[in-house]
Structure formats: C-alpha cells, structure tokens
Write a structure and sequence with these properties.
Blueprint lengths: L25 E4 L4 E5 L9 E2 L6 E2 L4 E4 L8 E2 L4 E10 L5 E9 L20 H10 L12 H4 L10 E5 L9 H8 L1 H15 L3 E7 L3 H11 L5 E6 L8 H9 L14 E5 H13 L5 E7 L7 E6 L4 H7 L7 E6 L6 E2 L13 E6 L16 H5 L6 H9 L3 H6 L10 H5 L6 H17 L1
Parallel strand pairs: 1-14, 9-10, 9-12, 10-11, 13-17
Antiparallel strand pairs: 2-8, 3-5, 4-7, 5-6, 7-8, 13-14, 15-16, 15-17
Helix pairs in contact: 1-4, 3-5, 4-5, 4-7, 10-13
Pfam families: Complex1_51K (PF01512), Fer4_10 (PF13237), RnfC_N (PF13375), SLBB (PF10531)
Subunit structure: The complex is composed of six subunits: RnfA, RnfB, RnfC, RnfD, RnfE and RnfG.
Subcellular location: Cell membrane
C-alpha cells in the first residue's frame, strides 16, 4: 500500500544541493580560544548579565538571566574567564550585548549540571521548568522560546504536537544527520513535549527525500503509542510552521493567530533533542549541530559546535574558502541572512553556514513586472506578492495591509520564480516591518 504523502498549496522545487554534506556524520568541534555569547539569541526580551569581567565561569553555568515571559536564559559553553561584556556583531545582523569568554581549554562543567528524573516520573510543570532553565528555543531558525510554547493560553487545549524534520531549505543537512544519529533522543524529546502539553498525538514530519531518516525515526517511534512519522512531499517551504500543520492535520492557522489556536504545537527536531539532553543530563542549550557547506567551502561538514564559536573557526576547520567567496550566509539560501563579517558567533538559531562563490552570486537587474502570476502560483500563503510589492515600493503601506502583507512568511518563493527578478520578498518584508511598527505605536 502506498504511504500517504502530505503536502500543501503552492511552493517551489529549488535544487537541494544537500548531497554536498548529507553523507558526512556529525563531528564535534571545540572552540580554540574565545567564544562570544550574545545576551539575545531568541525572540523576546534580551537577558541581563549575571557575571562581570574577570569572573571565572564553567560549562553550563547560567550567565544571562531571562527578562520577561518571552525570553530565554543563556549559559556559558566553555570554562574560562570573562574578558568583555560589550556590543558585538551578531549573525542576526545587529549589534548585540555579548559576553566574551576566553576558554581555558578544560571544559569543566558547572556543579549544578545534574541529570533529572526519568520523563515518566516528571510532572508537566517540572518539564516546563527544565526547558525554561535550559534556555531552549526553536532551533529551526525562529528561536522562539520553547517554554512559551509549552505554556499555551489556559483556554487552548493542545491535542497534537508536530516535530518539524522537513529541513526544506537547500544545502542544510544538520537536522537530517541528527535524525539519523540521535533518533531515540528526538522521540524522547517529543514525548516530553507531549506530556508537558497533555497532547495525545505526536508526529515527526520528514520530507520523502530523507528515506533513511524516516526509517530510523519510525524504528524509534515503534514502542510508543500515539507517535508516528508523517512522510511529507519534498517541496519548499514544507518546513514552514503553518504549512506543516496544514499538510499533516488539515487544520489552518487563522491569520494573525498562533498554532495553539487550533490545538497544535510545532517544534524542530533539534529542539526536541535539546529537551531530551536537558532532561537526561541536566544540560542547558550550549551547543548545536551546524551544517558548514556550499560550493565555496573546501570540505562541507556537519559539526556539533559550542554556542559562541566564531564562523571563522568553523570555515577554517572545513578547509577554508574554495576560491573567492561571493557571499557567506547564516542559514540557508532562501531565508538565511548574508553576513558582512565571519567573526560573528554561532547562536542557538544557527542551522548552517553557507558559502557561495562569486560566480554563483547573480546581480539582480530588475525589469518591469509582466503580470505572469508565477509569484501568485508559488505563494504558499495564497497572497498576491506582485501587488504587495508594488504598493510597498510606492510606500503605500496601508494598501499593503489590505493585501495581508503581514501574513507573508518571507520564504522567498515569489522572488525565486520571478522572471523579471523583481525585489518581491525584500519589499514585502519592508512593508511588514512598517505595518508592525505602526501597529506598535
């Protein structure tokens, strides 16, 4: 019997380029000297430093306290001396107050890092507390504090949890390798999330171009009731939160609402793995898997790295640049952020470091819109990108709002298919920012 493949309206099929790194097992990389740990690596309020210059810190020690409900604490990923607390460039594209630590190379763990009870012996509120104190956030790139997702409004009953293992961005293979190498821990994290929310059903959504991962996760799910793999049709942006929900459950998240509104919570497989480690070992989120890849890298790899490790070190560890780099991107080519420096640090949401050579960077020479409607066909949110973009370029943001610009997920599908190379996603992003800024006023 043919297995059902879940999918959604719209989307595109860009070349994946995953063959560059998907066969390379995860290697551990330890930073050479300094790590730079931003006090804001998440959506929400930045942290307050708990240490000062010249303090000695240990691995896993909390060095930044969360301020507010939507926030997440940060921890030291090395042992050593705090040498600076100052604004530093972040891969988010902003200057962020950061704690700079000179590693002593010993990696001595903080005495408070101890295993927790088995999940079966933990109460939902205890799981939520562990997740909060571990500083766990969405590791697919969104960096929304996970503890907030585990505390939905009291009138919202969550019955389905989905783990996002789609990894639909071209080039990136960190989640793929994690599913192959740590399937039991990922499912363990899923069960913890389900228990914290009182959910009865759990899915791990994986695209059908990762058959080996599907096999391993299915094997890990076998002994548990209520959890299964949902095989997703390979299409971008299949990993978008709203689209993976629609594909698997048939439910639609209303405009301006969150998935809890329809009884669903979505987390990344990397987030589930981090939760499993926090429960089993008491380990806060101090490291993650990062894909270093692209035609501009000598030897692409998947690396387990300490938070705060500079991009430069990881690029050098992978053999350095192949030729002259045209662009270094944090994340994937569709939704990643181009970097002006490779001295920025890996943060909790850094899924990849993509290096593209000069000859792959096409300079856009926009031409007039020809009304071909390819952007409309590709838009997974059923928007009209050509009109939103046109009004944005005329600074008519009220009209952009009428065309639901704020519902854009900035996936870049419209720009990808546009034959006139119009700045569609860029101008829509501008409109969204202006609409939201005006709303805050």
């Amino acid at each position: 019997m043919k297995t059902r493949e879940y999918t959604f309206f719209g989307g595109i099929h860009p070349r994946s380029y995953k063959e560059l790194s998907n066969k390379y097992p995860i290697e551990e990389y330890l930073p050479k000297s300094q790590v730079i740990i931003p006090l804001q690596q998440h959506i929400g309020a930045p942290c307050t430093p708990l240490v000062k210059v010249n303090d000695y810190v240990k691995v896993g020690q909390k060095i930044g306290e969360a301020n507010g409900f939507v926030s997440a604490p940060v921890h030291s990923s090395v042992s050593g001396k705090v040498v600076a607390i100052e604004d530093r460039p972040s891969s988010s594209g902003k200057l962020v107050k950061s704690i700079v630590i000179e590693s002593d190379g010993e990696f001595n763990y903080d005495d408070n890092i101890k295993p927790n009870e088995d999940i079966n012996n933990l109460k939902p509120e205890e799981i939520r507390y562990i997740v909060r104190e571990a500083g766990i956030v969405g590791m697919g790139g969104a960096t929304f504090p996970t503890m907030v997702k585990l505390n939905p409004p009291s009138d919202k009953k969550i019955d389905i949890v989905i783990l996002n293992g789609a990894e639909c961005e071209p080039y990136l293979t960190a989640d793929h390798r994690l599913m192959l190498e740590k399937p039991v821990d990922i499912v363990h994290g899923l069960l913890a999330i389900m228990k914290a929310l009182g959910a009865s059903k759990g899915y791990v959504g994986i695209e059908d171009n990762k058959q080996d991962a599907i096999k391993e996760i299915r094997k890990a799910c076998k002994e548990y009731e209520g959890v299964e793999v949902a095989v997703l049709k390979t299409k971008y942006p299949q990993g978008s939160e709203k689209h993976i929900i629609k594909a698997i459950t048939g439910r639609e998240v209303p405009s301006g609402k969150i998935p809890a509104e329809i009884g669903v919570v979505v987390d990344n497989v990397g987030t589930a793995f981090a939760i499993a480690e926090a429960i089993k070992y008491g380990k806060p989120l101090i490291e993650r898997v990062v894909t270093v890849t692209g035609e501009g890298i000598m030897t692409p790899k998947n690396l387990r790295v300490k938070i705060g490790t500079p991009f430069r070190e990881l690029i050098e560890y992978c053999g350095g640049f192949k030729g002259t780099p045209g662009k270094v991107i944090s994340g994937g080519p569709m939704m990643g952020i181009a970097q002006y420096s490779i001295d920025v640090p890996v943060i909790k949401g850094t899924s990849g470091i993509l290096v593209l050579p000069e000859d792959m960077i096409a300079l856009k020479n926009p031409k007039p819109c020809i009304k071909c409607a390819r952007c409309v066909d590709a838009c997974p949110m059923n928007l009209l990108p050509l009109f939103i973009s046109a009004y944005s370029l005329k600074n008519d943001f009220d009209k952009c709002k009428e065309y639901h610009a704020v519902d854009c997920i900035e996936c870049g599908s419209c720009s990808y298919v546009c034959p006139s190379k119009r700045p569609l996603v860029e101008s829509i992003r501008l409109a969204k920012g202006e609409i939201l800024r005006k709303g805050r006023k």
